[in-house]
Design goal:
heterodimer; B: alpha+beta; 6-stranded mixed β-sheet; 5-stranded antiparallel β-sheet; about 30% helix; disordered N terminus
C-alpha cells in the first residue's frame, strides 16, 4: 500500500506539470492580452484610455515579455506559494480568492448534504419498491430535476422569493451585511438566501444520485446472497443495510474525486446567474478578461484537488471493498 | 502687462465665490458629534475661505443633509463611476455645457496658450491637509517629469508641437501653465470624465517617492504591498480615478472607505468639500453612497426590486417595460434620458480593407451613398425601437450648438431606385442567378459586417438591413466575434465593414476637439490605418490617399492653431460638411432613450437629461452633490 501511494504521488508531478502548461497555453490562446481586453472594455463604455498608464502596466505586469518567460515566472512563483497577481483586481490572487473561498465552501457543503439527505431515502425506496407508483412518481420528479436547466430554475425561484418573501435578488445575504462582522442577523440572512442556490444546484445532483443508487442497488438485490440471507430469516431492514447497500455505495466513494474540486469551484453558471459571492464568477470573468494569473492559479488549484481527490477515492475504495486490488494485473 | 490684461478672458464664476464669513454655516448632523469631541474642526474651519456658493433655482431646490444612496454596479472596478458621478473637477461643465471653474476659484486664459489657475484660499484635502500649488508642483516635477515614474514623459495633451509648458507656481494659490502656441485641449482635458490630474496630494504620496524617502522605507512599502519597485507602489497608491485606495486624500464630494476586494463599497462624504448651498449647508447633501456589486445581468431585476436609488448603468432600452411595470409596486420612478452619441448604431465601411476590389468600391462616395439609401431606417426605428428614436446620420445632435439640419438628413431617405442607379453607375450592373451584383472580378458582392457579438440588438438591425440591401442586389452577412477579435480584424484590414456606435460626443461646442471627424486614431473603424498613421506620426499605418480625408486632417490640425472661437466654429462646420458629403460612416439611428431609475424620495434629479460619459460624465454635470433625500429616507 505504501509503495502504491508513493508511486501515485510521484506520477502526480508530471501530471500537474502538463496540466499547468495546458492551462497556461489555453488561457493565452485568444488574441491580445489582459490590457487589450481592458482597453476594449473601457472604449465600449466610451471611456478614454490613458496610453501611458497602459504602457506602465504592460511593463509592470511583464506582458511585454515572451510567453515562455511569463510561464516560467508563474510556475516558479507557485512553487514558492506565490500565485501571482490579479490584474483585474489589482491585488495578489490569494487575497482575491481567499475572501470568497469560505462562502463557496458553505454553499457547496450545504448542497452536498441536501443532495444526500434527499437522494438516499428516495434511491433506496425506489430500488426496494421497483415499478411501484412511488418509484414511478419519484423517478418522474427526479427526471424533472435533471432536465430543468439550473439557471432557469434559479431565475424563477429568485423571482418568487423576492415577490412572496421579499428576499433581495441574488447574492448570499442582504446587502447591509456584506463586509460586516459575523452576527446572528447576518447568519440568519445567509440562511434566508442560502436555500435557493442549494435547492437549485442540488436538484440535478439529487436526480443523478437517485438513479445511480437505484440502479446499483437493484443489481445487488437480485443476487443470491440476498436470497440466502432472506431465507435464513434476516429482517428486511438489516438485510438491506448489512449487505447490498454497502456494495451499492462503491460509486459514492468513487465520487469523492469529483466532489473535492466541486466544493471549491461552486457551480459557476448558477453562481453567475444568482450573483453569488463565490469563486465561480471570479473564474469566469478572469477567463473572459484574460486575467491570466488569477484564472491560471485557480484552475491549477482545481486540478490539484481533482488529482488528490481521485487518489483519495481510489484508496478508500480499496480499503472498503476487498475485491478491488491496487496492483491489478501486475502479478500475472 | 497692460497688453496681457487686455487679452484676458475673465471667467464668470468669480461671482459665485464667497467668503465663508458672510454665510451662516450650518453644521452637518453626521459630523456634529465628532466636532463636539474635537475630532473634527467645525464647518466654518473646514470649508475654504473662498467657498463656492451654490444657488439651486428653477425645479431644483435647496435640501437637507442625510441619507444613504444605494447604487448597483456590475464589477468591483466600476466604483470608478463614483469619481465620474461626483464630478469635482478643476474646471467642469455646467448642464448647458459651458466650462466653469469648480475646484478652482477662477482661471484666466490668454490667447488660448497661457492659463493662470487660482486655487481657493483655505481649500483642504479630505484629510484636512491644505490644497496648494505644491500639489501641482509635485505632479509636474515629481511625477510627470520623473523619468522613473513616467517613462514616456508628460501626457500628450500637455505637449504642443513637441513643446512642454512652462509651469510657474506664482504663490501658494496660483499656478500658471504657458505654451508658445495655443493649447485648445488643456481645459477640456481637465473637465473630462476621466480628468487629466495635474495635481496630486503631495503630502500623502511623498511617503512612497524615492526622491523623499530612503531605500529602507521604500523597501518596507514594497514588502507591504507586494510590489517589485517603488514606482509600482507609488502608481498603485496614486489612483484617484479608480478610487481603490481609501487612504488617498481626495477633493471629491464622497470618498471610498472600503478596501477591495469587496462586494459592497461605502463612500462617505468629504468633510472638507468646497461647495456650500445658499442656506449655509455644506454639500453634498447625501451622507453615504453604498455601491453593491451584483452580476451585471441581474442589475435590471434588482433595480426593479427597489434595490437601487439611482440607476442607469447596466439598464437598457429593452428593460423599460419591465421597470415601468415594477415601478407600480415599488417606490421609484423610471425616466427616459437621452444619449449623446452621434449614432446609436452606425455602419463603418473599412476604407483601408485589404481586398483591393472592395477597397476601391468603399472609397467611392457613390457606393457609400447607395448603401445608405438602401437602408430602411424608418422600419428599423419602428420594429426595433418602438418608433422612439431619430433616424439620422452619424453627426452632431440638434440639441448641440453646432447642429445644421443637412448634417442629420442628407442621404438617409430610403430610396431603392436611387441606390440601384448609383450601383449601376459604378459598373456593378451584372448579377448572378440570386440577383446579387457581381464585382469587377466576377465575385458576388457580399458584404461581411463584423459585430462584436455583444447584443442581439445589432443582429436585429443587421437582419433588417439585409432584407433591404437584398433588393439593391447586395448580400449582407453578419459575422459575430468577440470584442478583441472584432477590433483586430478591423485594424489589420481583414474586415470590410463593421457595426458600432457613432461619435462619442455629439454635443460638442466649437472648443471641443473635432478629432473624431478626421483620421486621427486607429480606433476609428472607418479608416484605422490612416488614423494609426496620424496617431503614431507616420510610424505605422498608411497615409490617407483620398483628398477629403487629407483635408480633414489638415482642418483638424488648423483647428488647434487658430486663435478665435469663430474660426474654430467655422472649421467644425467645414469638417461636419465633409463628413456629411462623404458619408464616411453610415449612421442609422441616434437619440436612443436611456432608462434612468430614480427613487421617489430623491430630489433634484432632472426629469430630462443626457446620459452619456462624454461630455456629461453621466450624472456628473447635474451635480449629484446637490441631490437630497426626503425625510422618509434621511
Amino acid at each position: 500500500m505504501g509503495g502504491y501511494i508513493l508511486r501515485r504521488l510521484l506520477t502526480m508531478i508530471p501530471t500537474l506539470l502538463v496540466i499547468s502548461m495546458l492551462v497556461f497555453v489555453i488561457i493565452q490562446l485568444p488574441p491580445g492580452d489582459y490590457l487589450e481586453s481592458h482597453i476594449a472594455e473601457l472604449q465600449s463604455h466610451g471611456e478614454s484610455v490613458d496610453e501611458q498608464k497602459i504602457q506602465f502596466l504592460r511593463e509592470e505586469y511583464g506582458l511585454d515579455k515572451p510567453m515562455i518567460h511569463q510561464y516560467w515566472y508563474w510556475l516558479i512563483g507557485m512553487l514558492q506559494g506565490d500565485f501571482g497577481y490579479s490584474f483585474e483586481y489589482d491585488l495578489p490572487v490569494t487575497e482575491v480568492v481567499g475572501d470568497r473561498l469560505f462562502l463557496t465552501v458553505i454553499i457547496s457543503v450545504a448542497t452536498i448534504l441536501f443532495t444526500w439527505i434527499v437522494a438516499f431515502p428516495i434511491g433506496i425506496y425506489s430500488a426496494t419498491h421497483q415499478y411501484s407508483w412511488g418509484d414511478y412518481g419519484l423517478s418522474f420528479l427526479g427526471f424533472l430535476g435533471l432536465a430543468t436547466p439550473n439557471f432557469l430554475l434559479a431565475l424563477i425561484m429568485l423571482y418568487f422569493a423576492n415577490v412572496y418573501f421579499g428576499t433581495s435578488i441574488g447574492g448570499l445575504m442582504d446587502p447591509e451585511y456584506i463586509g460586516a462582522a459575523w452576527s446572528m442577523d447576518k447568519f440568519l440572512s445567509i440562511l434566508e438566501h442560502l436555500w435557493i442556490p442549494v435547492v437549485v444546484i442540488g436538484t440535478s445532483g439529487t436526480a443523478g444520485m437517485i438513479r445511480r443508487l437505484r440502479a446499483n442497488l437493484l443489481d445487488e438485490l437480485q443476487k443470491q446472497y440476498v436470497t440466502t440471507g432472506r431465507a435464513k430469516g434476516l429482517p428486511e431492514g438489516k438485510l438491506l443495510r448489512k449487505y447490498p447497500l454497502r456494495i451499492a455505495m462503491n460509486f459514492f466513494i468513487a465520487d469523492i474525486g469529483n466532489l473535492l474540486p466541486a466544493v471549491i469551484s461552486g457551480a459557476e453558471i448558477v453562481a453567475v446567474v444568482m450573483s453569488l459571492p463565490t469563486t465561480g464568477p471570479i473564474l469566469l470573468t478572469a477567463l473572459q478578461s484574460q486575467d491570466m494569473y488569477l484564472a491560471g492559479s485557480f484552475l491549477m488549484f482545481l486540478a490539484l484537488l481533482t488529482v488528490v481527490g481521485v487518489l483519495v477515492s481510489d484508496i478508500a475504495l480499496a480499503m472498503l471493498d476487498p475485491r478491488i486490488r491496487l496492483q491489478g494485473g501486475m502479478e500475472k | 502687462m497692460k497688453h496681457l490684461f487686455s487679452g484676458l478672458i475673465l471667467c464668470s464664476c468669480l461671482l459665485s465665490t464667497h467668503s465663508s464669513q458672510a454665510l451662516s454655516l450650518q453644521e452637518t448632523p453626521l459630523f456634529a458629534q465628532q466636532v463636539e469631541v474635537g475630532d473634527l474642526p467645525p464647518v466654518s474651519e473646514r470649508v475654504p475661505e473662498q467657498l463656492q456658493l451654490v444657488r439651486l433655482e428653477g425645479d431644483r431646490s435647496a435640501g437637507e443633509h442625510g441619507g444613504e444612496l444605494r447604487l448597483l454596479m456590475g464589477k468591483q472596478k466600476d466604483i470608478r463611476q463614483i469619481t465620474i458621478y461626483g464630478y469635482a473637477r478643476l474646471v467642469g461643465y455646467t448642464p448647458d455645457l459651458v466650462l466653469k471653474a469648480d475646484i478652482l476659484e477662477s482661471y484666466e486664459v490668454f490667447e488660448n496658450r497661457i492659463f493662470t489657475l487660482r486655487l481657493r484660499k483655505g481649500h483642504k484635502w479630505s484629510d484636512g491637509h491644505p490644497f496648494t500649488s505644491e500639489d501641482f508642483r509635485y505632479y509636474w516635477e515629481d511625477i510627470a517629469n520623473n523619468p522613473e515614474l513616467s517613462k514616456g514623459g508628460p501626457p500628450k495633451t500637455l505637449i504642443i508641437d513637441g513643446e512642454l509648458p512652462v509651469v510657474e507656481y506664482l504663490d501658494k494659490h496660483t499656478v500658471r501653465y504657458s505654451w508658445s502656441k495655443p493649447n485648445p485641449y488643456f481645459l477640456t482635458a481637465l473637465a473630462g470624465a476621466l480628468p487629466l490630474y495635474i495635481y496630486k496630494p503631495s503630502h500623502y504620496l511623498r511617503q512612497f517617492h524615492a526622491r523623499y524617502q530612503n531605500q529602507e522605507t521604500l523597501d518596507k512599502w514594497m514588502a507591504k504591498f507586494k510590489k517589485r519597485s517603488w514606482q509600482s507602489v507609488h502608481f498603485n497608491r496614486d489612483r484617484p480615478y479608480k478610487a481603490t485606495n481609501p487612504d488617498l486624500p481626495t477633493l471629491q464630494p464622497w470618498s471610498n472607505q472600503t478596501w477591495p476586494p469587496s462586494e459592497r463599497f461605502i463612500f462617505k462624504r468629504n468633510p472638507y468639500y468646497h461647495r456650500v448651498d445658499e442656506n449655509g449647508r455644506q454639500l453634498p447633501y447625501i451622507d453615504t453612497i453604498v455601491v453593491n456589486i451584483a452580476s451585471s445581468k441581474l442589475v435590471p431585476a434588482k433595480t426593479g426590486a427597489d434595490e437601487s436609488d439611482l440607476q442607469a448603468r447596466y439598464l437598457r432600452m429593452d428593460n423599460y417595460t419591465f421597470l415601468k411595470t415594477a415601478s407600480k409596486r415599488s417606490s421609484f420612478d423610471v425616466r427616459l434620458w437621452q444619449t449623446a452619441k452621434g449614432a446609436h448604431m452606425a455602419l463603418y465601411p473599412n476604407l483601408n480593407t485589404n481586398d483591393i476590389v472592395y477597397r476601391r468600391l468603399l472609397q467611392d462616395v457613390r457606393f457609400r451613398f447607395a448603401l445608405s439609401h438602401a437602408i430602411h431606417r424608418y422600419e428599423i426605428n419602428q420594429v426595433v425601437y418602438f418608433g422612439l428614436v431619430e433616424e439620422s446620420n452619424n453627426t452632431v445632435l440638434p440639441q448641440g450648438p453646432l447642429f445644421k439640419p443637412g448634417y442629420k438628413s442628407m442621404g438617409i431617405e430610403f430610396d431603392l431606385a436611387k441606390a440601384n442607379r448609383l450601383l449601376d453607375e459604378l459598373g456593378l450592373d451584372r448579377r448572378d442567378d440570386r440577383g446579387i451584383r457581381l464585382l469587377s472580378d466576377g465575385r458576388p458582392l457580399e458584404i461581411l459586417v463584423q459585430t462584436a457579438g455583444e447584443s442581439t440588438e445589432q443582429t436585429d438591425v443587421l437582419e433588417l438591413i439585409r432584407d433591404s440591401w437584398q433588393q439593391a442586389g447586395l448580400k449582407l452577412y453578419s459575422i459575430p466575434s468577440t470584442r478583441e477579435v472584432f477590433r483586430n480584424r478591423i485594424f489589420s484590414g481583414d474586415a470590410i465593414m463593421s457595426i458600432w456606435s457613432g461619435l462619442a460626443n455629439a454635443l460638442p461646442g466649437a472648443d471641443s476637439s473635432p478629432q473624431d471627424l478626421a483620421p486621427t486614431s486607429k480606433y476609428q473603424y472607418q479608416w484605422p490605418k490612416w488614423g494609426s498613421f496620424y496617431e503614431f506620426s507616420g510610424q505605422s499605418g498608411e497615409a490617407p490617399d483620398i483628398p477629403a480625408a487629407r483635408q480633414l486632417v489638415e482642418l483638424n490640425d488648423r483647428w488647434a492653431e487658430v486663435a478665435t472661437r469663430e474660426e474654430r466654429e467655422s472649421i467644425w462646420h467645414q469638417m461636419l460638411a465633409i463628413n456629411r458629403d462623404q458619408m464616411f460612416t453610415i449612421g442609422i439611428v441616434n437619440s436612443v432613450p436611456h432608462p434612468v431609475v430614480v427613487s421617489e424620495y430623491l430630489r433634484n434629479v432632472p426629469i430630462k437629461g443626457f446620459y452619456d460619459i462624454s461630455p456629461g460624465s453621466y450624472f456628473g454635470i447635474y451635480k449629484p452633490d446637490t441631490f437630497w433625500f426626503d425625510e422618509v429616507r434621511r
